[in-house]
Amino acid sequence: MEGYDITAITASQLNREREGPTAGKQSFAVSLINMTFRPLSFARVRFGPNADWSDWFPIPETAQNCFTNATKCFEDGAATNILVVESTDPPFQLQLASPLDDSGHSMTGTWSISPNPKHKGQVIVCTA
Predict the structure, then answer these.
(1) Residue 123 and residue 79: Cα distance in Å, rounded?
(2) What domains, with CATH codes, occur in the chain?
(3) CA distance 95 to 66
């Protein structure tokens, strides 16, 4: 995407600038690139390593939206917005889950989210 600079890519997340401030406060969008065959439909959060997890809540169901590599998918705008917080919110952990399969199991993954007024969002990449 023109105007974006990807300088640091890890196996689990990318930083990305998103759309700007709303209602006098700067929003921070968390977006998902799903490279797995399992859709992700639910999330929960926890603020601090010793805090309790929130209840599960629905997110926009995100099926596999990347079939090449995270950088190309990012550049092509394939990420799906799943959560918006304020850029001044404290760091938190985000856990995503797929719907239960026929055996009653779900795929989950956990990411560290660090809202920051210098960025407009963070893109997480689910690879397994």
Answers:
(1) 7
(2) 13-126 (2.60.40)
(3) 20
**End-to-end CA separation in angstroms for the chain:** 25
Residues 108-128: pLDDT tens digits?
Answer: 999 999 999 888 899 999 987
The Cα–Cα gap between 43 and 53 comes to 10
Q: Which tens digits make up the pLDDT trace of 35-73?
A: 999 999 999 999 988 899 999 999 999 999 999 999 999
pLDDT reported for residue 61: 93
Say how far apart CA 16 and CA 121 lie, in whole Å.
5
Task: Fill in the DSSP letter of residue 25.
Answer: B
- The answer to whether the CB of 116 falls within 8 A of the CB of 87 is yes
pLDDT at 24: 58
- The label of the residue with tokens 């998902």 reads 32
Question: Burial letters for 87-123: b for 16+ Cβ neighbours within 10 Å, e otherwise?
Answer: beeeebbbbbbbeeeeeeebbebebebebbeebbbbb
